[in-house]
């Protein structure tokens, strides 16, 4: 059901982006018609480009939110009757399981230069050094 909802939301986001681009082109055409100099026409064109890029950025942000919602709502059928767990940043297809951390979230430290989550986080968490492929849990 979530994949259908995601596809519908994705299609709606694409339609909204196309409408924004169409609107920007119509505004550009009106501004160019009212323009009296070459520079005014160039300004109208640049404004259109900015609006198109903003629409594309909004589309990609929406797609990222849809994917994130899908991850958050994704449940694994094993371990406690379908309790899901968050992905670990920096892991390459492997999940680091810590029974004490079930129900908590893991966030990467923020890089002070870029303001984005750091990809150089120290994983696996201290004291937990072994991993098993997804679905293969070996409890001590």
TrEMBL record:
UniProt entry tagged with the keyword Coiled coil: yes
Basic residues bias: start-end ranges: 131-140
Segments traversing the membrane: none
Ranges in a coiled coil: 27-70
Coiled coil keyword on record: yes
Family matches, as InterPro entries: LEA_1
Region of interest (Disordered), residue spans: 73-140
Cited Pfam families: LEA_1
PANTHER family per UniProt: LATE EMBRYOGENESIS ABUNDANT PROTEIN 6, LATE EMBRYOGENESIS ABUNDANT PROTEIN 6-RELATED
Taxonomy, superkingdom: Eukaryota
Similarity comment text for this entry: Belongs to the LEA type 1 family.
Protein name, as recorded: OLC1v1003432C1
Entry keywords, A to Z: Coiled coil
GO biological process: embryo development ending in seed dormancy
Organism, as annotated: Oldenlandia corymbosa var. corymbosa
